[in-house]
Design a protein that fits this description.
Layout (H helix, E strand, L loop, with lengths): L4 E6 L8 E2 L2 H7 L2 E3 L2 E3 L12 E5 L2 E4 L14 E5 L17 H17 L4 H12 L5
Parallel strand pairs: 2-5
Antiparallel strand pairs: 1-7, 3-4, 5-6
């Protein structure tokens, strides 16, 4: 799926999200645009009359023209991002991490750090083994 977007909903109706479609599956749906006119795809029936969308760059494409009265006359949508807007942070700001995953991040960092370290006891044992002279 498209990274970073959690959901797209009509403004004021957060309980009616549009169905995300991966960019790879969009062409399978057969939705097309010709001179600004949208044509519904032959396989959009798999969405069971729901409206799907996919994201390409900074644009969102829908499987139906959501601005028509038959589709709700939607003029604005809410986009809930899964990530923080990094353009709002300076180079010295700490990255925002939600409390739900903060412990997981700390544990993973400690795990990565400890994998590359060797204890003093192991280091001494290795040093003694490397410097021992094989007597026959």
């Amino acid at each position: 799926m498209d990274m970073g977007v959690w959901s797209v909903t009509p403004v004021g109706n957060p309980h009616s999200p549009y169905i995300p479609i991966s960019s790879q599956d969009w062409s399978v749906m057969g939705v097309g645009y010709n001179s600004g006119t949208q044509s519904a795809g032959i396989n959009t029936s798999y969405l069971e009359q729901q409206t799907g969308y996919y994201i390409e760059g900074k644009r969102i494409y829908f499987t139906k023209n959501i601005t028509t009265s038959a589709n709700g006359s939607i003029s604005q949508v809410s986009v809930l991002l899964l990530v923080a807007d990094l353009s709002q942070l300076s180079d010295s700001d700490l990255l925002p991490v939600s409390p739900e995953i903060e412990l997981n991040v700390i544990e993973e960092v400690l795990s990565q750090i400890s994998n590359g370290r060797i204890s003093q006891v192991e280091l001494n044992a290795k040093h003694e083994n490397d410097n021992s002279w094989p007597y026959s």
